[in-house]
From TrEMBL:
Ligand binding ((6S)-5-formyl-5,6,7,8-tetrahydrofolate): R24, E96, K135, K494
GO biological process entries: tRNA methylation; tRNA wobble uridine modification
Organism in which the protein naturally occurs: Fluviispira sanaruensis
The MnmE helical domain, residue ranges: 138-491
Compartment annotation: Cytoplasm
HAMAP family, A to Z: GTPase_MnmE (MF_00379)
EC number annotated for this UniProt entry: 3.6.-.-
Protein name in the entry: tRNA modification GTPase MnmE
Positions bound to GTP: 241-246, 260-266, 285-288
Keywords (A to Z) from UniProt: Cytoplasm, GTP-binding, Hydrolase, Magnesium, Metal-binding, Nucleotide-binding, Potassium, tRNA processing
Length: 494
């Protein structure tokens, strides 16, 4: 297949002044095309890259050389690395050239490459060639793209798992199970009962249900994976002056939100990324929740409550430092109940009651909080959303958020589940999710036909459709428009 591809090149590092610019070239004849323009720094003779590749016995090989233009003028002294096919990223012969990071030098090099018959690469064309040449499959290619564009540590981790082939192996295993089901049907389509036995489609149901269960589990990873890639959403809610903005700044470790003694200082939702123990969160600070005649503040309160609906974890911040000890238990329960009455929560959401301003509390107040915690489950057992509640109160101050961070990390692990483990496959694109859903729907329809003992041809057609959907995840397709759409989102030079 390589012979049909024109040699291509691209700048693989960002344009602009820097220490180096790396150019990547790929093509069957790229060594022969470039050799006349590569000189040894010692004797100024041309370096035969074809011979160098043969001497390297297929291994990557690096040389310090000069590169010249067609008029024999020196373009730059460069570090040149060859990657002979098929042991290269694209499966073709590849050259990487590191020039000094001046855009003018890169422009001269690119002008030379165009003049000797190469063309500028399209977005993702190197990776597309890797797929077409069988170096990687389409799922791994999507993993590479996400590896480059991931904005969180979790996103990098999931992309790495996909590049390593975890999802590809899972789809391969599922495909093998489906083929074994299909074999039974094909046998009863092609041969008479006295050769293969009576047609008993119900005997296939346990296998089909096992595949559906496995596919449903895989389909569910998309949602968890999305949270891992984007970050678990944590919203700080509470009444004005409860200490939300101070907590927001303390978690971020810099003064992001304005903090004053004036109630209602925060009027809008603030959002930032937060990383705790390599776990990714999206942290939101919100306006204090209260009835108000101020139009701007009222809009802020509405946005606060709206943020709660999409939160994974809600930190309900409560201030008790001015209360008598006898009021503490009732006040905390009242705050929780008022919050529950103001929003409609989903079962999977988590609420952590956070008592703020620990540094302002008396020993007696802290003792009362410890007593509340000891009876927390008993005191909250009749509340509407008790299953969403954390198992205890969390005390924090503007300088000590350690306990809250520990709770957030624990909730992160519960929300993400098994997705973070390297051995567990995860769907990382909507395309992959849709293909799995198509496979599930086909198998469910297949089960209905089996229940009425429909013709094996009809059942086999649905099984085949399920198999094809899984094959499309890893790229066992020949649709150029699908490939072009996927690779158009890649970087030039990748």
């Amino acid at each position: 297949m390589n012979a049909h591809f024109q040699s291509i090149f691209a700048l693989a590092t960002p344009m602009g002044r820097s220490a180096l610019h790396l150019h990547r070239l790929s093509g069957e004849n790229v060594f022969a095309i470039l050799s006349p323009y590569i000189l040894s720094p010692h004797n100024k003779k041309s370096v035969d890259l074809v011979s160098l590749a043969k001497k390297s016995e297929g291994r990557a090989c690096t040389r310090y050389v000069y590169i010249i233009d067609q008029e024999k003028n020196e373009i730059d002294d460069v570090v040149l690395t060859i990657f002979p096919a098929p042991k290269s990223y694209s499966g073709e012969n590849i050259i990487e050239i590191s020039v000094h990071g001046n855009p003018l030098i890169s422009a001269k090099l690119q002008s030379l490459l165009r003049s000797i018959g190469m063309r500028d690469a399209q977005p993702g064309e190197f990776t597309q060639r890797a797929v077409l040449n069988g170096k990687i499959d389409l799922a791994q290619a999507e993993g590479i793209n996400q590896l480059i564009h991931a904005e969180t540590l979790g996103g990098v981790e999931l992309a790495r798992h996909t590049v390593d082939g975890v999802l590809s192996r899972e789809t391969g295993d599922l495909r093998a199970q489906i083929i074994s089901i299909l074999a039974y049907l094909e046998a009863h389509i092609d041969f008479a009962p006295d050769e293969v036995g009576d047609y008993e489609p119900a005997s296939l149901l346990p296998q089909i249900h096992a595949v559906i269960e496995r596919l449903n589990k895989l389909h569910a990873t998309f949602s968890s994976g999305l949270k891992m890639r984007e970050g678990v959403k944590v919203v700080l809610l509470g009444k004005p002056n409860a200490g939300k903005s101070s907590l927001y700044n303390a978690l971020l470790r810099y003064d992001r939100a304005i903090v004053t003694h004036i109630p209602g200082t925060t009027r809008d939702v603030l959002e930032d990324r937060l990383v705790i123990q390599n776990k990714d969160f999206v942290l939101l600070d919100t306006a204090g929740i209260r009835a108000t005649e101020d139009e701007v503040e009222r809009i802020g309160v509405e946005r606060s409550l709206q943020s709660a609906l999409s939160a994974d974890v809600i930190c309900l911040v409560i201030d008790i430092h001015k209360l008598d000890c006898s009021q503490i238990h009732d006040h905390i329960l009242s705050e929780i109940i008022q919050f529950f009455s103001s929003v409609k929560l989903a079962e999977e959401q988590k609420i952590i009651p956070v008592v703020s301003k620990q540094d302002l509390l008396t020993d007696e107040q802290i003792s009362m909080l410890h007593e509340f915690n000891q009876n927390f489950l008993k005191l909250t057992k009749d509340l509407e959303y008790k299953n969403c509640l954390n198992n205890n109160l969390v005390l924090i101050s503007s300088v000590n958020t350690e306990l809250l961070c520990k709770n957030l990390v624990n909730h992160h692990s519960l929300i993400i589940g098994e997705v973070s483990k390297k051995e567990n496959p995860t769907l990382i694109s909507v395309r992959q999710k849709d293909k799995v859903l198509n496979a599930i729907n086909s198998l469910n329809e297949c089960s209905k036909l089996i229940a009425i003992k429909d013709y094996p041809e009809k059942i086999a057609s649905l099984i085949n459709h399920s198999k094809h959907s899984l094959e499309e995840i890893v790229g066992e397709i020949h649709l150029d428009n699908v490939l072009d759409k996927i690779f158009s989102t890649f970087c030039i030079g990748k």
